[in-house]
Amino acid sequence: MPAVARDDGPASSSSAAADDRSGRLAAIGELAAGVAHDFNNIVGTISLYVDLLEATASLDEVGLSYLAAIRLQIDSGAALGWQVLDLAARSLLERVDIDLASFVGDILPALRRTLRDDVGLVLGDSGPCIARADPTRVRQILTNLVSNASDSFDGPGQITITLATGMDGVLAGPWVRLEVADTGRGIAPSVLHRVFDPYVSTKPRGQGTGLGLSQVRGLVAQHGGEIEIESTPAGTVVAILLPRVPQPIASGGLDAPQLVGSPVPHVLLVDDDPPVAEAMRRVLSSLGYHVTVAVDAERAVGLLEDGASAVSLVLSDVSMRGMGGEGLARVMADRWPDLPLILASGGQPVGGLWETSTAAPTRLTKPFSSTELAETLRGVLRARGSDHRPSRTS
What we know:
The chain is an alpha/beta fold. Helix content is 44%, strand content 18%. It has eleven helices and twelve strands.
């Protein structure tokens, strides 16, 4: 019987190669997510101990300058961890309605700490600018843009952040416009049109990865926004458009008065990484919380079975051996739906719990500061109707 010619050989080979590439990319994504999780744990632990030192130690000006240098490296490390997750397409947005004017004002001191003394950073006046965005990612965007702006100065300089609503022209519509402008040396026209491409850097060799603006563009796109950049020898302006929420968000927040007679909140802390668990235990204790530590989700379930009524909230890592944080969330939603749960995540997607569960957990993104941890816990307790505000202890 004569051989039959087949024309699908090259196509089959191409398909197999594509499947092989997809498999390799998926494996790289899994590896990147695991590395980023461990890296965020390391950076987060260092950050919490720096917070404890600032709060409890009597440091002179030199000691405080050392801590500021450490915190600068913490911020750089945190940004690097998120870059790994973004490039591996493993990051997750958690969008809420936020007033960007208040939000940027709150993080401005932290951004200033990353700058040289001869570089100024100011926020222009504006009314409420409410956008639907992930606060952690907005902070990351601003950190990248402010860092890039500061690197454009050969001497003293000024960085100005402005916010506005109501757009004219092609992009007219419900947008919040966030601009970061600097008085630096500008970007050469030969580079400007490629500045959002991966590994394209305006910095000298060895002083940048070229991933910052690429990552910013990706984050803005994930929000359904737009990004523009203009540059002259007198400076650069990066403008970001984010979807605007027209109605005002509810007033109030974390500064309402403490309820008289509220008991000291009891936090069940669940983490299988001993250094991380110890750092968080110390911070929570310094904030005045009573803390019980469980080394994994299974132990946490056992402790809840013995006395869930004594626990005010559960704070758990997501990525752990055994059932992990997601499994714990499912058990709690079924057996203790009224008990608040905070899941600390290094960026890993967590099923559909955020949208589908009536007892959806609150998400806390690693690495976080002690202030972010305290505000998250306080907000969860407020939502539960227990507004106790623990006193910081030495």
